[in-house]
Write a structure and sequence with these properties.
The protein has about 220 residues and is mostly beta strands. The radius of gyration is 18 Å and the shape is globular. It has a four-stranded antiparallel sheet, with no helix packed on it. A four-stranded antiparallel sheet has the order 5-6-7-8, with no helix packed on it. Strands 9-10-11-12 form a four-stranded antiparallel sheet, with no helix packed on it. Helix content is about 0%, strand content about 40%. It has two domains: about 130 residues, 6 Propeller (Neuraminidase), CATH 2.120.10.30; about 70 residues, no CATH class.
């Protein structure tokens, strides 16, 4: 059970069968992963490390969970059984947010503070850049369908849009034009397997206030 006034719950994701939610929670100064069943209230800890484990995602068959961790001293993508157990390191050159392809051949991921989306064979191998066009501050604004890779581009000059790259051909097309800034530094995009629905988060308005403090010291 995740308890305590200072607990912070982040990055929830439904399991493929819709019966569980995996999420990260910061309860003791670092982030760990938990799973909670839809039918119950008790959350089960997946990790209890002194390192940070963040931004979980399910494999398409629900058997594994991917996540970013600084366990090795650098942010890398790791994978562990959904029921709990030992995690294995997937990336070697940096990684943060990851999704397994529906054919279970590849793991697509982005890196911390570096633009682009990469992929690596599920069982390990060379890490290949798929597109350099995802900005580092939009690391949460991309998603994977069965046949396409969707990601937001919002350059200072040029086309502001959600693009779709065909996984088979590599051809890129515009899925939707954007007029507002996608939410930065946070997860914010999802797509269904058949691409019938695409969701994303955007910043509609922002503001600030000025206060006067009497007798300030």
């Amino acid at each position: 059970m995740v308890t305590g006034r200072k607990a912070v719950v982040l990055s929830p994701r439904w399991s493929p069968d819709g019966t569980q939610i995996v999420f990260e929670s910061r309860t003791a100064g670092n982030d760990d992963l938990f799973v909670i069943p839809l039918a119950g209230r008790a959350a089960r800890a997946l990790t209890q490390e002194e390192s940070n484990e963040v931004l979980p995602s399910w494999s398409p068959d629900g058997s594994a969970i991917y996540f970013g961790s600084d366990h090795s001293g650098q942010w890398q993508v790791w994978r562990m059984p959904a029921g709990g157990g030992a995690a294995v390191q997937v990336t070697r050159e940096g990684g943060l947010v990851a999704f397994e392809s529906y054919d279970q051949r590849w793991v697509y991921y982005c890196r911390q503070a570096s633009p682009g989306i990469w992929r690596v064979p599920r069982e390990g191998g060379p890490e290949k850049l798929v597109t350099p066009d995802l900005a580092a501050n939009l690391w949460g604004q991309w998603a994977l369908s069965q046949t396409g890779l969707f990601y937001a581009v919002f350059p200072p000059k040029g086309q502001r849009a959600i693009l779709r790259q065909d996984l088979a051909t590599g051809q890129t097309s515009v899925s939707r034009l954007l007029t507002r800034l996608p939410v930065q530094y946070d997860s914010g995009m999802g797509v269904t397997r058949d691409e019938s629905l695409l969701v994303w988060s955007q910043l509609d308005q922002a503001g600030s206030d000025i206060y006067v403090v009497d007798r300030f010291r």
